[in-house]
Design brief:
Elements: E1 4-5, E2 8-16, E3 20-26, E4 33-39, H1 47-61, E5 71-77, E6 80-86, E7 91-92, H2 93-101, H3 106-125, E8 128-129, E9 138-140, E10 146-148, E11 155-156, H4 180-183, H5 191-207, H6 219-228, H7 243-252, H8 264-272, E12 282-285, E13 296-299
Antiparallel strand pairs: 1-2, 2-3, 3-4, 4-6, 5-6, 7-9, 8-11, 9-10, 12-13
Helix pairs in contact: 3-5, 3-8, 5-7
């Protein structure tokens, strides 16, 4: 491993996926900590993968939001491609649930999830569909703040020129969190697919487990359940889940796009309703989302950033 990338001193390797490796780097002049995402060497001559990597940089460049991991710079040096992003000190939600927390109490779940929806609302207003919402793409910070990351397969609505594009018959996403239209490999995936996946994520947070067990069910079986069956009832897993939360998940994960929440703002409003007269929680409006979106955020005192 090189001890320096783009003049950043490499402190350690953070992780590796199917397409890239991520390092923690430090700017020796300012002390700024960064996460450097490097396209894996054996993929640098794969044109479609290079386009996908560039597209992630293009998407992040238009998404400046407190709950989205921020792009600092993008560089191509010879055959090598690098994304330099803000470094977030935390753990992903999958690990947080699996190793540290298990089932997250309902009020805490709503607080965390509203931040995710706020980020998605901003992305959707900018014409960006994430297409891979899942626990491992949500970073948890010690302050109780969350960050959405990995826009590597995101789509910019109306812009299919020169970027990573999806053709009919090509499935994009993570099976357990896919919407029915993703399973059916439809080409016209829109923001309501993210709303479905977010509903599955909300289910996972409330129950401590995803609705489908990829360890025991085949990928085909899970795909058929997504297309045909409602999600298993949450109270069968966690009796503490309220009927209102079940209704919210049912609407978010409706098979028909027209039957779901039509925007993240509508989803947020539904989450806000159960706490409207609850004096235990303080409700404050979030900042407007890219011109017009105003979302209510449930603020839980013990999870507020100390700043």
């Amino acid at each position: 491993m090189s001890q320096e990338i783009l003049n950043y001193r490499i402190e350690r390797e953070i992780g590796e996926g199917g397409m890239s490796r991520v390092y923690k780097g430090i700017d020796p002049k300012t002390g700024q900590e960064v996460a450097i995402k490097e396209l894996l060497p054996h993929l640098v001559h794969h044109d479609e993968v290079r386009q996908r990597f560039r597209r992630e940089a293009q998407v992040l460049a238009i998404l400046n939001h407190p709950h989205i991991v921020r792009l600092i710079r993008y560089e191509e040096v010879g055959d090598n491609l690098y994304l330099v992003q803000e470094y977030v000190d935390g753990m992903n939600l999958a690990r947080y649930i699996g190793e540290h927390r298990g089932t997250i109490p309902e009020a805490d779940t709503v607080h965390l999830f509203c931040q995710i929806l706020d980020a998605l609302a901003f992305a959707h207003e900018a014409g960006v569909v994430h297409r891979d919402i899942k626990p491992s793409n949500i970073l948890m910070m010690p302050t109780g703040q969350v960050k959405v990351l990995d826009f590597g397969i995101a789509r910019i609505v109306g812009d299919e020129s020169g970027g990573f594009r999806t053709k009919t018959g090509t499935r994009i996403g993570t099976v357990a969190y896919m919407s029915p239209e993703q399973v059916n490999a439809k080409a016209d995936i829109d923001h309501r697919s993210d709303i479905y996946s977010a509903g599955v994520l909300f289910y996972h947070m409330l129950t401590g487990m995803p609705p489908y067990d990829m360890a025991t069910d085949s990928e085909f079986d899970v795909q058929m359940k997504i297309v045909r069956d409602s999600l298993p009832r949450m109270r069968e897993i966690n009796p503490a889940v309220s009927e209102k939360m079940q209704q919210i998940v049912d609407k978010a994960t409706a098979k028909s796009r027209e039957a779901r929440y039509q925007s993240c703002q509508e989803f947020l409003q539904a989450l806000h309703e159960p706490f409207r007269n609850d004096t235990k929680h303080r409700v404050t409006p979030s900042k407007p989302v890219n011109r017009k979106a105003i979302a209510a955020v449930i603020v839980i005192p013990e999870l507020i950033d100390s700043k």
